[in-house]
Amino acid sequence: MNGSGSPTLEEVAALAGVSRATVSRVVNGSPKVLPDTVAAVEQAILQLGYVPNRAARALVTRRTDSVAIVVPEPDSRVFSDPFFARMLSGVSRTLAPTPSQLVLLLEPAEADDQRLLRYLRGGHVDGAIIISHHGRDNILQELAQLPLPIVFSARPLGVDVPVASVDVDNVAGARTGVQHLLSIGRRKIATIAGPLDMTAGIDRLTGYQEVMKEAGLPAMVAYGDFTPDGGEQAALRLLDDHPDLDGLFVASDLMATAALRVLSQSGRRVPADVAVVGFDDSVLATTTTPKLTTVRQPVEQLGSRLAEILLAKIAGEEHTTAEIYDTELVIRDSA
Amino acid sequence: MNGSGSPTLEEVAALAGVSRATVSRVVNGSPKVLPDTVAAVEQAILQLGYVPNRAARALVTRRTDSVAIVVPEPDSRVFSDPFFARMLSGVSRTLAPTPSQLVLLLEPAEADDQRLLRYLRGGHVDGAIIISHHGRDNILQELAQLPLPIVFSARPLGVDVPVASVDVDNVAGARTGVQHLLSIGRRKIATIAGPLDMTAGIDRLTGYQEVMKEAGLPAMVAYGDFTPDGGEQAALRLLDDHPDLDGLFVASDLMATAALRVLSQSGRRVPADVAVVGFDDSVLATTTTPKLTTVRQPVEQLGSRLAEILLAKIAGEEHTTAEIYDTELVIRDSA
DNA sequence: TTGTACGCGTTATCAT
DNA sequence: ATGATAACGCGTACAA
């Protein structure tokens, strides 16, 4: 026993009557150790409750067995959206059976980008997953160029080097949603789009615009910022400008919930007067009245895949492609 | 430069023309270093982009500068509730200015408790925050007895040793909510309680029962599991058993949203026919129709305080008391 | 004030 | 198959 209470390799070796090296081999599953020796060592490990010292190991292997999940967003919007928790859940699920631990790097207050970059460059983690929504400054570009395995949760805006990323097909998802509104007979279809400094905002708007154009219908757009407040403002503007609209495609469930409320308060029935389609299929979608018809993104799966790719990159594989996953229309009561 | 690309103390020393030890002193802010020397060293550090190797440092200091946030819940309910993200945000906020990193320990699949305990005992982190909702098995008891600074996010059920914990006054919060229903003239007040293996479930029910008893009114209770589905089932049962109820106190916003929907579908108007009060003040509360009146818990603050206490314990302070924070009634449209 | 020298617990190389 | 032994990068008595 050393001072800190944890037994060391040395002590296990002494108890098992072998050398440090042999114990190390057993711990790391080396094939060339006599079964008898293995048994003796394992017995000693059990008896002492030995746990390898990660710091010592990291020092020599130059691997930390930990990966970072980075949220380089100074504002707390990320947290109010259930999206983030689902992502985390997915990442964690594929990391669980590996030795890798999840280190959370958040930028809660004013952006101290240099600190973040220093940390990532300092060899404290083996790789990083970037959950970023905005193309803020050029932090994404700097992250992309780090000499460290990195994957992005969405095609990072304004980055001109090839990166690995995982995302849903936002354009196609939006198309599905708008087409559904068309298919149930709506013609005066407006959209509440997300901010244009996020790929999700841009692409979902594009999908809406494409379908409307193909149908020969005029586009009606208001912008929100993916928050309930933003959704509310946008919905009010829309009703003001186009009181006769009969369909509404909203770029996120969080904003859609607010829109539903605004519609209801304006005396409109959903879906009878105005049919509403959201985007995400978050927990929120089933808490509204009526339940929200929405475009589901498989967020947990994205997170899971993100982790898989990162692990592969850490293992040395090249990977600089954008993986795109399909969305799925979930029809409930609002459209 | 060594193989990994990061410069070492040695290289900084060479460039600055001093010894390793002196550089180390500068890095760690030792007071007795000549200003000139400090300047020279800092210049060298900057020039080389030196970052201390955390593994090497941890090896000798026996501190890891990282704390764990542990969610020993095998099911994913934690993630569907915005509560968790807010907690994380609070913890992260007070950790940000410190050197400590946040390590996330989740138990996504079947509980591998021993693995978790081994990890925590292995000196990989300096301390841990336990976010636990259930009194599952005796994992909490085992955690509480670990030779490691630990704080709990709520008074842990079934633990008979003194522990440090932070929570809101759930009894008082529930009382406030129910009293509000009384104050607006409701007399047939039911509750949707949480599960009785969580302190939040028990205490909020207690608060409800106390107030009802004091008012000489009969209690009407249905149980949910803090999910929307559970809330829906409970609401249906309640309406079935007590079709004439005019007030409803729901132990969580997530369940309350479902209850609102059930009430609406049953043809009842909220708050005209039935007034509803939730608990949490999560993002959900403003997404419903009508907006939810609810008992706010300062979740970010709890997380923040949790981190503060943990840091203090790591620094050597004793701390085994339960800190209780106040809730606040947020009156919106549902009651 | 600064430098020397040792030890932290592990892996990896090289003998045996 | 196993055992010495040398790194890994850093902090810190102890010396100077």
TrEMBL record, chains A, B:
Keyword DNA-binding carried by entry: yes
PROSITE patterns on file: HTH_CROC1, HTH_LACI_1, HTH_LACI_2
GO molecular function, one term: transcription cis-regulatory region binding
Keywords tagged on the record: DNA-binding, Transcription, Transcription regulation
The organism of origin for this protein: Kribbella jejuensis
Domain HTH cro/C1-type: 8-51
The organism's place on the tree of life at top rank: Bacteria
The protein's name in its UniProt record: LacI family transcriptional regulator
Residues covered by the HTH lacI-type domain: 7-61
